[in-house]
Amino acid sequence: MIIVLRPDATKKETDHVIQKIKQLGLAVHISKGKERTIIGAIGDESVFEEHPLDTLPGVEKVMPILKPYKLVSREFQKEDTIINLGKVKIGGKQIQVIAGPCSVETRETLLHIAREIKKAGARLLRGGAFKPRTSPYAFQGLGEEGLKLLSEVKKATGLPVVTELLDPRDTDIVYRHSDIIQIGARNMQNFRLLTEVGKLDKPVLLKRGLAATIKEFLMSAEYIASEGNRKIILCERGIRTFETSVRNTLDLSAIPVLKEETHLPVFIDPSHAVGRWDMVAPLARAAVACGADGLMIEVHSDPENALCDGSQSLKPSKFAALMKELKKVAIAVGRTM
Ligand code: PEP
Ligand code: MN
Fold first, then answer.
1. Cβ atoms of 155 and 137 closer than 8 Å
2. pTM exceeding 0.85
3. Which terminus of the chain faces fewer neighbouring Cβ atoms within 10 Å, N or C?
4. Which atom of ligand 1 is nearest to the CA of 186?
5. Is residue 78 included in any domain, yes or no?
6. Are residues 152 and 10 part of one domain?
7. 214-226 vs 254-261: helix axis angle to the nearest 10?
8. Which atom of ligand 1 is nearest to the CA of 182?
9. Chunked mean pLDDT (size 10), the chain, 337 residues
10. Whose CA is closest to atom 6 on ligand 1?
11. Is residue 45 located within the same domain as residue 172?
């Protein structure tokens, strides 16, 4: 249920409404807009039949949220969520690009790639230390050592770090070494993991599952939000379809659909969608044209010898050229980069 307070509601009136909702056994989520405060009451709404809230002082109107996802829905919050990460704003007019290798390999390569992507205009560095690999015999990532390298490179370049949390047992160390915690496609419906990151005060980049509908995607975001963490970035990364000519099928229509359904920032990962470097650029341009708030792109200085996803990684020079093109597309659609 959404409880819209009057613009002139006093603190006493607001507190009383909050108290009442809690007394009825529902969770309270407050959203303070420029003009008025909106309270989300999440739980069994049937209690309001006997205890209506619309007659309480300070309340303007009470509306049910019709969607199954509540806190992340546009119904609950009209304005776009903007996540502030130091000077980097995610979800605003400026489009952000997260770039870097699939996995952290060595200090030298990571530092080199980080400097290159920064020069090209990316403001966030990615790199996996815990890798979700299809084969148990494939490189699984450097683990804690990889996280420490990410922290070192952050110190040297100033770039905030995005890295994946694969297992709730690693929450503390991943938290310590990251600025944004990534939940990978394979874990989109790992509800225990979602609940875990929902309790943290750090932004979460949630990737869409390989076979997840948009509704399921948003329900997973709701798991995180319902625990209190509303700093969620959604990332479409290609879904499984009958098509086999590329690794996955990039669902570009997810962008306008998500922008309508939710106030959360929407990112596109063209690298994992297409699976080959030579098709990353057209999809990245299309994503920006389509209204994405940001991109996640894999970059490697020596793709041929990369330990993971080399075939879809752009060399730094190609990445820099793409960034120049993306800036033009961004301006054409009223954004900045
Ligand atoms: C990744 O970004 O490194 C990754 C493994 O992506 P996904 O979870 O989308 O496959
Ligand atoms: Mn990868």
1. no
2. yes
3. N
4. 8
5. no
6. no
7. 40
8. 2
9. 94 95 93 87 90 94 91 92 96 98 98 98 98 95 98 98 97 98 98 98 98 98 96 98 96 98 98 98 98 98 97 98 98 98
10. 184
11. no
